């Protein structure tokens, strides 16, 4: 069979997959002895991971804001003011948009007293 024979299976060089598996097993055996963790250390790492995930999943929306939740960049839902939860570690992101404030411009009259029956004046304009 020649190297350019298209009908047969592809040829592999010397060694192949078996040599790679043996090298990988040797590397894993070397590291296995050096990095032995006791059960309490694993529990500590798990507790730290849970605390970080909890901190990353809580967010607050201010009274004049609306929270826009995106999961992997795609819109999912809107949230109102208050304390809310989301999926941590970048799965869901929150964009807070100021939507509750109304700006007012007055032309020709000035508000003296705001209320149900507002009072206006024309004085003070030049």
Structural Rg: 33 Å
- What is the H/E string? HHEEEEEEE
Largest sheet: 3 strands, antiparallel
Q: Quick check: average pLDDT?
A: 80
- Helical amount: 25-40%
The strand count comes to 7
Which regions are unreliable across 5 or more consecutive residues at pLDDT < 50?
Answer: none
- Terminal residue distance: 101 Å
Strand order of the largest sheet: 3-2-5
**Overall outline:** elongated
Classify the beta-strand content into a percent band.
Answer: 25-35%
As for the number of domains, it is: 2
Class from secondary-structure proportions = alpha+beta
Number of helical stretches of at least 4 residues: 2
Describe it for me?
The protein is α+β, with helices and mostly antiparallel strands. The protein folds into two domains: 18-56, no CATH class; 57-117, no CATH class. The chain contains two helices and seven strands; from the N terminus they run ααβββββββ. The strands form three sheets. It has a three-stranded antiparallel β-sheet, with no helix packed on it. Strands 1-4 form a two-stranded antiparallel sheet. A two-stranded antiparallel ribbon has the order 6-7. The longest helix is centred in the first third of the chain and has 18 residues, at 17-34. The N and C termini lie far apart (101 Å). The mean pLDDT is 80.
Question: Which structural traits does this protein have?
Answer:
126 residues, alpha+beta, 2 domains, three-stranded antiparallel sheet, two-stranded antiparallel sheet, 7 strands, 29% helix, elongated
């Amino acid at each position: 069979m020649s190297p350019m024979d298209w009908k047969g299976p592809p040829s592999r060089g010397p060694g192949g997959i078996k040599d790679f598996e043996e090298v990988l097993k040797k590397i894993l055996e070397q590291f296995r002895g050096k990095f032995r963790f006791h059960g309490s250390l694993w529990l500590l790492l798990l507790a730290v991971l849970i605390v970080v995930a909890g901190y990353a999943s809580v967010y607050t929306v201010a009274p004049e804001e609306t929270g826009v939740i995106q999961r992997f960049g795609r819109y999912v839902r809107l949230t109102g003011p208050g304390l809310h939860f989301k999926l941590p570690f970048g799965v869901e992101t929150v964009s807070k948009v100021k939507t509750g404030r109304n700006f007012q411009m007055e032309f020709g009259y000035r508000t003296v007293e705001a209320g149900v029956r507002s009072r206006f004046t024309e004085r003070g304009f030049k």
